[in-house]
Design goal:
Blueprint: H1 7-34, H2 40-48, H3 67-80, H4 82-102, H5 105-117, E1 121-125, E2 141-145, E3 148-159, E4 166-177, E5 183-191, E6 197-199, E7 213-224, E8 228-229, H6 235-271, E9 273-274, E10 277-278, H7 283-311, H8 316-345, H9 355-363, H10 373-383
Parallel strand pairs: 1-4
Antiparallel strand pairs: 2-3, 3-7, 4-5, 5-8, 6-7, 9-10
Helix pairs in contact: 1-3, 3-4, 3-6, 4-5, 4-6, 6-7, 6-8, 6-9, 7-8, 8-9, 8-10
Protein name: Acyl-CoA dehydrogenase family protein
Family: Belongs to the acyl-CoA dehydrogenase family.
Organism: Sporichthya brevicatena
Amino acid sequence: MSFALSEDHESFRKVVRDFAEKALAPNIERWEAEGKGLPTEAVQGMAELGLFGLTAEEEYGGAGADLTTLCVAIEEIGRVDQSLGITLEAAVGLGINPIATYGTAEQKAQWLPDLVAGRALAGFGLTEPEAGSDAGGTRTKAVLENGEWVIDGSKAFITNSGHELTSVVTVTARTGTTADGKAEISAIMVPTNTPGFTAEPAYRKLGWHLSDTHPLTYDNVRVPEANLLGQRGRGFAQFLNILDDGRIAISALAVGLAQGCLDHSLAYALERKAFGQPIGKKQGVAFQLADLQVAVEAARLLTYKAAWLKDSGRPVKEVKQAASIAKLYSSEAAVSATRTAAQIFGGYGFMEEYPIARFYRDAKILEIGEGTSEVQRILISRGLGLPVE
């Protein structure tokens, strides 16, 4: 049994790491200080490297690569900056993948070439002010009138939804009632230039300052009936399937953060001196670094195991369980890693000019986005056969 990535994956890792360290890392502090949100030049840089099209079909300009390849890219971007890592993850996982998986030939031809090339971004409007983990509680409505969907409602915390490059946001909405009285949820693609669609001012967030995140308003938004994505009434189920890949990708993002904490902390422990010796010589620091190394390795193994299961076509149930396990462990390990790194850096870990402070701010959302830690524990418990509510 081999736990090593292929030579191609490792070669690709070196390419992405070189790009992240040379093209992204030197600019992150400036981009954050400017306070303008997601820098277009960063998106363009990732696009030139082909990162947005890694898993897309070749006929639309993609590379047709596996999920493991995408995870490698997200890990390496996330090792430098989480905001840009989530930009890539959401652009592919929530923007491109739903269209590539459930879109018609016409929808794919219309939207995928620009999205795959990074000339445009797409968002996915699922979460609402009162419907987060309980996505089945969606209140946004879409009524079919004279060949058009008329959409009214609001969404919250939507990534890549209001940037100058954003061209389309897929929205989940109640389109009727099922035979058993439950809400029928469908997914509908809404171009961002549609009258009545508004990306409200960006959130002021604790972290992910370079990520584009907005609340959305749909006020009598009208789009063609043909903008339905996938089957009517299957929007929620479709999105749950998309989330399996997303959770593995978020896990890779968390691995990148933990690895970044380890890299910076190790370098600091070797150069920072106290009482005439490098602090890394002290067991109190050395043991913290050792524990951090263990957490990084465990998180990485869980992440790439889940990606391998998906790439190998293993049963959906098996992939779902592995995705939740990886996401739960890696996200919580990342949060702990930032706390450890800040402790090793001491007062400097509290200063904004050091990346540790940014990592600390960015980490918490990993335990919340794409399924909270509590949701992951519910899913894992169900996977064990327990009758969890």
